[in-house]
Structure formats: C-alpha cells, structure tokens
Amino acid sequence: MESFTASTVLRRVSPRALRRPYRQFLSFGAIGIASTLGYIVLYSGLRSVAAPTVANAFALLTTAVANTAANRRFTFEVSGRRGIARDHAAGLAALGVALALTSVSLGVLDLVAPHRGAAIELAVLVAANAAATLVRFLFLRVAIQDSRRFQERAATSLATLTPAERILR
Predict the structure, then answer these.
(1) Which residue in 18, 80, 108, 135 has the fewest CB atoms around it within 10 Å?
(2) Measured between alpha carbons, how far is 90 from 50 in angstroms, rounded to an integer?
C-alpha cells in the first residue's frame, strides 16, 4: 500500500488543478476589494442622509449583485444565462449572512460606543463584511460547481454508458 506523502499527492494532482484555486483566490480577492471600495463609497454617501442600517442594507444589496455577477464571470469563468438564477440566489443568501453580521455589528457598536465617529463605524462594518466574504465565496463556489457537475452529467449520453452505469445514474 502506497503512503500518502506531500510529493505523492502533488504527483497525482495536475498542475492545472493546483492553479485553478489559486487563480480563483486572486480573482475573488480583486473583486472583493473593488466591492469593498464601492460599499465604502455608497455607505459613506448614504450615511449622511440615512440611518446606519438603511445605508448598510442599500450599500450591501447594490454591491452584492455586482459582486455576484463579476465573480460568476471572472472567478468561476461562467458566462451565459444558464444557471444565472441559482448563482444569484446563492449570492443573495450570502448577502443575507453579510446583512446579519453587519446589522449585529452595528447593534453591538451602538451599545459599546454610542457616540462613535464615522471612521470607527465604517471600520467595524468593513470587518464584518470581510468575515462574510468567506461565506460568499463558499456559497458561490458550491452553487456554480454543482451547476457544472449537472451540466457535465447531462452532456454524457446514455448511449455511452454501460448498463450498470445507467442504473446508477
């Protein structure tokens, strides 16, 4: 029985398979930075005329839709309309997590520092959004990979399958 060392695992994994997660990480990070900057601009602009929770929700919703579209296209290399509703539903689920984290953060901030400055408020919100970013990546990755698996299975003709494979399918 062969032992599993780092070198045996790396020999079995193609270089392309190793590059994909790294490239996805870089793309997701770049899109995340752009989304965060957009969020900061929107939140800061709205904060002067709206309550923190309203400004937060609007800025999150606006940037989440753009973020999902950009990640779908550039991070996960998906184009076209197939699966778009499912992918955006995953993005909206991640938005729900982000909204919950940021809303709780604002509530705690109100208790701890009711007379805080705008910079403190924004720093706390950016930190909460950073925590929600991991959830967003996982939601999108699962939704899009499940979509790809389904498409690959659908593309496999039943004629090319053995009788046993047809039963298991």
Answers:
(1) 80
(2) 28
Burial state string for 15-34 with b = 16 or more CB within 10 A and e = fewer than 16: eeeeeeeeebeebbeebbee
Predicted pLDDT at 106 = 95
Q: Closest Cα partner for 70 from 22, 40, 20, 33?
A: 33
Residue type for 119, please?
A
The predicted model scores a pTM of 0.73
Question: For the CA atoms of the chain, what is the radius of gyration?
Answer: 21
Query: What are the structural domain ranges in the chain?
Result: 8-158
Contact 42, 63 (CB under 8 A): yes
Write out pLDDT tens, residues 9-46: 455 555 565 577 788 889 999 999 999 999 999 999 99
Whole-angstrom distance, CA of residue 6 vs CA of residue 123: 40
Burial 73-91 (b: 16+ CB within 10 A, else e): ebbbebeeeebeeebbebb
Tell me how far the alpha carbon of residue 84 is from its chain's centroid.
14
